[in-house]
């Protein structure tokens, strides 16, 4: 059985001590992967891994919205051991994207999760950088790997209330700018209503380990057709059951596939076949896998 982890970060510092073993375990589990960049340094590292393991790894290069503007730059020690902010440069990113191992642009998009007040105009700057990356994807005829995370409000009782604000803005950007390129919504976490809008806009959706331990995504997963669904780990983050709380890794995508098979009422083999084919089509890998 073959599986595809369509969004992982094994080039991150979280794997500096055992990266070779992690990739070996993925290969033994029949898992191929796309290493997704979040700025120049991690994009370049993903390309190097893809060149080192040409039969198992491909790369996506891009600027994460939390890195796209200096005012909102966020450091994660699992991503980089030391904070190294970089300035987005469209020409430099396009040069990286010309590498034959690069199959997508991103992750890029909108992230409102940490924005409490927007006096600095961070949201508009994120939109500008996202559209610049969409232009590169369009020019090079590559898929767009989209990160979208909405803000969370607090009720008077202190409960968290999810919103679709970033997804609504993303949808409007897509329609207003008529983006015909292949669009992949990584780690979809929106409502059923916004899922329907994005599906009609031609998007694909990835789901990861979170679906194994929360019911927040059940409606969207059951509604979306299997030919629009991809599997991912987003490793090193959000490991699935039974590994919850541990560092995630690509081999664990099989647990996501098992849960997806439950949702869809089909065999694990059917989910593996369908989602792998989706990757081959979206990322134009049919002739080389």
Summarize the structure.
This protein is α/β, with parallel strands linked by helices and 289 residues long.
Tell me what the structure shows.
It is built from ten helices and ten strands. It is α/β, with parallel strands linked by helices and 289 residues long. It has one domain: Alpha-Beta Barrel (TIM Barrel). Strand 4, helix 5 and strand 5 form a beta-alpha-beta unit. The longest helix is centred in the middle third of the chain and has 19 residues. The model has no long low-confidence stretch (mean pLDDT 93).
Q: Helices and strands in order, then pairings?
A:
Layout: E1 3-8, H1 19-28, E2 31-36, H2 40-52, E3 57-61, H3 65-68, H4 90-97, E4 102-111, H5 122-140, E5 143-149, E6 152-154, E7 160-162, H6 165-176, E8 183-186, H7 192-200, E9 203-207, H8 218-223, E10 229-231, H9 253-264, H10 268-282
Parallel strand pairs: 1-2, 2-3, 3-4, 4-5, 5-8, 8-9, 9-10
Antiparallel strand pairs: 6-7
Helix pairs in contact: 4-5, 9-10
Question: What distinguishing features does this structure have?
Answer:
alpha/beta; 37% helix; 18% strand
CATH level 4 superfamily: Metal-dependent hydrolases
Radius of gyration: 18 Å
Distance between the terminal alpha carbons, to the nearest Å?
Answer: 14 Å
Number of strands: 10
User: What would CATH call the architecture?
Assistant: Alpha-Beta Barrel
Question: Helix proportion of residues, in percent?
Answer: 25-40%
Question: Within the largest sheet, what's the order of strands?
Answer: 1-2-3-4-5-8-9-10
Arithmetic mean pLDDT: 93
Strand fraction = 15-25%
Q: Write down the overall geometry.
A: globular
List low-confidence stretches. none
Number of DSSP helical runs:
10
CATH class: Alpha Beta
């Amino acid at each position: 059985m073959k599986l595809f982890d369509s969004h992982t970060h094994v080039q991150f510092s979280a794997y500096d001590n055992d990266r070779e073993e992690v990739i070996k375990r993925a290969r033994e589990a029949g898992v191929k992967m796309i290493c997704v960049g979040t700025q120049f340094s991690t994009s370049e590292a993903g390309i190097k891994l893809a060149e080192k393991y040409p039969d198992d790894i491909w790369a996506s290069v891009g600027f994460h919205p939390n890195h796209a503007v200096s005012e909102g730059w966020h450091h994660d020690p699992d991503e980089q051991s030391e904070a190294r902010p970089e300035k987005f440069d469209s020409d430099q990113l396009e040069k990286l994207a010309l590498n034959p191992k690069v199959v997508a642009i991103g992750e890029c998009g909108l992230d409102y999760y940490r924005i409490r007040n927007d006096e600095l105009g961070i949201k508009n700057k994120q939109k500008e950088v996202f559209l610049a990356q969409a232009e590169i994807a369009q020019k090079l005829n590559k898929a767009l790997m989209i990160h979208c995370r909405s803000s969370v409000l607090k009720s008077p009782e202190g409960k968290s209330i999810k919103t679709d604000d970033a997804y609504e803005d993303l949808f409007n950007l897509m329609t207003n700018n008529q983006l015909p390129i292949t669009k992949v919504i990584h780690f979809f976490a929106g409502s059923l209503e916004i899922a329907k809008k994005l599906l009609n806009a031609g998007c694909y959706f990835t789901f990861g380990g979170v679906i194994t331990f929360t019911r927040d995504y059940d409606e969207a997963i059951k509604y979306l057709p299997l030919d629009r669904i991809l599997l991912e780990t987003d490793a090193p983050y959000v490991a699935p059951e039974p590994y919850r709380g541990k560092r995630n890794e690509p081999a664990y995508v099989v647990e996501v596939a098992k849960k997806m098979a439950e949702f869809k009422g089909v065999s694990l083999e059917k989910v593996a076949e369908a989602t792998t084919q989706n990757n081959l089509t979206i990322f134009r890998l049919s002739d080389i896998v």
